[in-house]
Amino acid sequence: MPKSLQVSRTLAAALLLSTTLTAAAIAQDFNWKAHEGQTVTFLANNNPWATKVLEHKAEFEELTGITLKVDSYQEQQMRQRMMTVMNARSDEFDVFMTLPSREGAQFAAAGWYEDLKPHAEKDASPDYDYAGLSPALLEAATFDGELTGMPLNIEGPLLYYRTDLFEKCGIDAPAKLEDLTAISAKLKDCAPDVTPFATRGLKPALPYTFSAFLHNMGGSYMKDGKSNLCSAESKAAIGLYASLLKDFGPPGAVNYSFYQLTSLYREGKSAMSFQSSNEFSSIMEGDARLNDTAIVPLPEGAGGSHPTAIGWALAVSKFSSNPDAAWYFVQWASGPDMQAKLALEGIAPPRNSVAGDPAYQAWLAEKPVRQAWQKALGHLADAGTSEVGYPIIQNPESREYIGQAVNAVLLGTSTVDEACAAADEQLNTLIERE
């Protein structure tokens, strides 16, 4: 058996024993069976966090006696389902995944979130460590004094690139944002069967990755209360992003979100992939990319380095018929024991205590790519911004116009000037509605 595999299994066994002993001790102080016999319905986005945590579903049901019903969709379909149910003020689901940076202000204004702060302060297991959660992520999920969701991870887009292809083609790692064009051109000539550069092109998903380009180029979404996509810096960001996908991206790039990007890179069909840090475990699935990948933040541009840093949160619906039982699932799924388990699966923890756990540190030390991933995440935490789209209640709708502008340039139906002008007009109308 390879030494690294022995170490991984030993760490996993030790973590499982530690978790079991901890759970047994805490069970004496906290009544996990308080809602035995009830059912909690979870509306899930089948991203890596949800996929990994639901592998432990039986543990939750055994611990609490609560039946967990799961309703799982791809992200866009999940959002459509969520909007339908919430607009009807229905109790069809109790718990749902949410991105405070995207829909937090909108959903809070609509009254769709249960305030979780009282639950966390008065009805949490002694080991929950509410105070140990990232203050920045808790603040990002708080609107008008109400805590709308418990942080599940910290993430942002990172640049994954193939070290074997860079070495073969005599290419150095990108130092500046503008280097990506020349590097992509060299890769296209040197490795014509591989897509040089891939990132999100799907209209509503695109702002997640585009925002890092915008901020690094020195652009901004708003200035003096107006849309700012036609500033010189913002136009440069639109032009660079669109041209990279148009000239060096995969066919059908306008349909690409996290799932397609991960599959393309994991299968060795893209040389550079700018996508979520949260996809790390999925990319490394099967170990094909474990030894030929480097990971860095997006290189700095004229405006410096301002990476996107956000986190998913777990929320309880205001229309849930059993919010107390729903909170039990939330605290179990977002607790330090579960986050320690998921950290060994490549889900970056939003608690410093988990990040410093010896088992996690040993797991990182096994492979250089894991250390590179954690180092890049550290930069996101230190320098990141959660501004993805416009800082307004109608943030989700604003993202549609951003994606539309970039897609118009990518598809060649508009120049950058035409695309940004059309977007600014629509966005200023949206801003005036606030």
UniProtKB/TrEMBL annotation:
Top-level taxon of origin: Bacteria
Keywords: Cell membrane, Lipoprotein, Membrane, Palmitate, Periplasm, Signal
The UniProt record lists the keyword Plastid: no
Subcellular location: Periplasm
Key word Methyltransferase present: no
Family to which this protein belongs: Belongs to the bacterial solute-binding protein 1 family.
Descriptive protein name: Carbohydrate ABC transporter substrate-binding protein (CUT1 family)
Source organism: Hoeflea marina
